[in-house]
Design brief:
Nucleoside Triphosphate Pyrophosphohydrolase; 4-stranded mixed β-sheet; alpha+beta; globular; single chain; 4-stranded antiparallel β-sheet
Length: 144
C-alpha cells in the first residue's frame, strides 16, 4: 500500500515570539527576495536538531534582532503547508531583557497595536496564529 503525500510530509518545527510592550506587538517583515517575501510575521525561525523551542527562539531573536529574551510559555501552535515547506509553528511568549530590536535578519520591524494585527499583510501561518490568539482572548479585542 502506498503512503499518501500527506503522511510522507515532513513538518518543519518553527518558533515565533509573542513580544508585547505597552499594548503593541513586535512583528518583522521578510526580505523581498525570501520565500513569502514582504510579508509580516512574528519574529523567529527554524528549530535546529537537538534544540528545544525556547532555545531556538532565544537564538533566533538574538541573530535576527540583536535582543536577548526571557522565553515564557507556549501560547498556541499551528500547522501550515506552504507547498515548498510545511511548518509546525509554535508561538512562545517572550520578554526582552537586553538590547533594543534592530532589523538585522529582516527587512524591517514594527511595533503594532494588537487591534491592528489583522490589517497587516501577514504570512498565512501567522494569520492563523492571530486568529487563534484573538479567539482565545489573548489579544485585546480592538476598538472597532
Amino acid at each position: 500500500m502506498n503512503e499518501s503525500k500527506e503522511t510522507q510530509k515532513k513538518w518543519v518545527p518553527v518558533v515565533a515570539g509573542y513580544i508585547q510592550e505597552k499594548g503593541h506587538l513586535l512583528v518583522t517583515r521578510r526580505f523581498p527576495q525570501d520565500a513569502r517575501g514582504g510579508l509580516w510575521e512574528f519574529p523567529g525561525g527554524k528549530v535546529k536538531p537537538g534544540e528545544r523551542p525556547a532555545q531556538a527562539l532565544a537564538r533566533e531573536l538574538y541573530e535576527e534582532l540583536g535582543i536577548k529574551v526571557e522565553v515564557g510559555e507556549k501560547l498556541v501552535q499551528v500547522e501550515h503547508d506552504y507547498g515548498d515547506v510545511a511548518i509546525r509553528l509554535h508561538l512562545l511568549s517572550a520578554r526582552i531583557v537586553a538590547g533594543r530590536p534592530r532589523p538585522l535578519g529582516c527587512a524591517e520591524l514594527r511595533w503594532v497595536p494588537s487591534e491592528e494585527m489583522e490589517t497587516l499583510e501577514l504570512a498565512p501561518a501567522d494569520r492563523k496564529l492571530v486568529q487563534l490568539l484573538r479567539g482565545a482572548g489573548k489579544l485585546p479585542p480592538g476598538d472597532s
